[in-house]
Amino acid sequence: MRSFAEHIAAPRGEGALKNHPHSGAAGGAPCGDLVRVAVRIEGDRIAEAGFDADGCGAVTVAASAIVESIEGRSFFSACRLEAGELAEELDLSPPKRHAAELAADALHRALGAAAKDGAVRVEPSSRRTLVAMSGGVDSAVAAQLALDARDEVVAVTLELWSDPGTDGEQSCCSPQAVRGARGLAHRMGIPHVTLDMRERFRAEVVDRFLEGYAAGRTPNPCVRCNGEVRFDAMLELAEALGAARLATGHYARVARDEHGPLVRAAADPKKDQSYMLAKLDPSLLDRISFPLGGHTKDAVRALAREAGLPVAEKRESQDLCFVAGLGGRAFLERHGGPALRRPGEIVDRQGTVLGTHEGQHNYTIGQRRGLGLASGEPLYVLEKDARSNRVVVGPKSALATKRVPVEEVTLHRHAGDVETVRLRYHSEPLACRVHVHDDGSIDLELDQAANGVAPGQLACLMRQDRVVGEGTIGEPR
Fold first, then answer.
1. Number of folded domains in the chain?
2. Active-site position among 173, 225, 432, 460
């Protein structure tokens, strides 16, 4: 590789591929440095690369060195390029090492854009596995198990959200998380692809999350993301890269009956994520692997320690990925707009005003604490009426219901096959019967009353430990 001075004097690829669609950018505020890298791919090779940079000379040098390094290399080889290695070869001082990180981020976004568009043509292989890597212990162990099986492993991380108001270090889909996952993959000897899905995620998950709260509902964005954004994008990438399967670190399994595959609950009920995967189309399951489905969390951490993975003891984030470090209430205040910033009344079931609220989105069906009301008996949130902007409260007994309306229903098996329903993540399955209406909606008749059934949440319909359908809990009829 040429020296820092040589790259400054004659940058390689500066201004090339200026309007090429397969490009990626990184930088901007607060550092002020900005770099864009573009790649033109023929087959599985980088035929040409170019860049534009604005800022310190180190960014120009790093981008020039990347162009020089990757031209003529295979796509997967380019996906192994590390910022640290680049910084060392250019002998960048610590204050200038960020230039290598920005240039590497831009390159990997460009490679991901090319792969997403189908510009990469790779010979398919029955031994190639695409692994969804978040940078946590679960996805790392899923990748390690594929390596142990002698698969050719490629990692992918979806960049879904970028917001300076949230904590990117705690999120699984922020630019910081992508960089961490890429570093982990490279440490494991795995090429890594970055998929920038921020626009689609905002439109199909975050905006609908905000709309749900504005309508007085309690939506579950993770279920929608898995079923309508994340898996679709990764399976499309797997096909483009000639991978026979997609492996993820979810705690779930796949079962088959005479009609085909279904999502099945994990062996460890404490970690089971089948509820979060309920919107997955069963027709996709023949191409998906859940290698952790038969393990406990402790066993997964033990496997990580045995393999020497640096994330063996990494803590899990409990927040939604796009509210990490900010919290749901603050996120809604920040992004919800006027529809979620309307003070209103708290009333009892007879309409008597008991107090006021700063926004109905701050309350959840079944909530008791934080109401700020003086009462002779404990009061719970029974209903949120977005049209009148009222929150209705009452005694706990009024929460109980044995009939649950469900909308937007998808049944993978006959309605008569449904034996139980889970009305919240990690809730116990409740025995039920399904009543189907002419409009395709259903009512669930529960054998025992449930408390705090929240419109907007997912109803996961089960037969034994298999997911046989799902829908969105509606307003009481």
1. 4
2. 225
Q: How many CA atoms lie within 13 A of 300 on its CB side?
A: 25
Could you tell me if 234 and 289 lie in one domain? Answer: yes
What is the pLDDT, as a whole number, of residue 319?
64
251, 293 Cβ separation under 8 angstroms: yes
Q: How far apart (Å, rounded) are the C-alpha atoms in residues 140 and 116? A: 23
- pLDDT tens profile 260-269: 999 999 999 9
Q: Which of 172, 173, 222, 321 is catalytic?
A: 321
Helix (H, G, I), strand (E, B) or coil at 459: strand
Q: Mean pLDDT across the stretch 203-227?
A: 92
CATH of the domain at 384: 2.30.30.280
In a domain, 453, yes or no: yes
Task: Look up 79 and say whether it is catalytic.
Answer: no
User: What is the identity of the amino acid at 231?
Assistant: F
Contact 128, 155 (CB under 8 A): no
Give residue-wise pLDDT tens across range 236-291: 999 999 999 999 999 999 999 999 999 999 999 999 999 999 999 999 999 999 99
For residue 416, give its domain range. Answer: 400-473
Same domain, 228 and 369: no
Burial of 90 per CB tally in 10 Å (0-12, 13-18, 19+): buried
Last residue of a domain, one of 262, 289, 323: 323
Q: Are residues 20 and 98 in the same domain?
A: yes
373 and 314 within one domain: no
Sheet strands (E) in 111-151: 125-132
What is d(CA 17, CA 336) in angstroms, rounded to the nearest whole number? 39
Based on the residue annotation, tell me whether 173 is a catalytic residue of this protein: no
**Positive or negative, the Cα torsion across 361, 367, 372, 374?**
positive
Domain boundary among the residues 359, 382, 398 is at 398
Whole-prediction pTM value?
A: 0.92
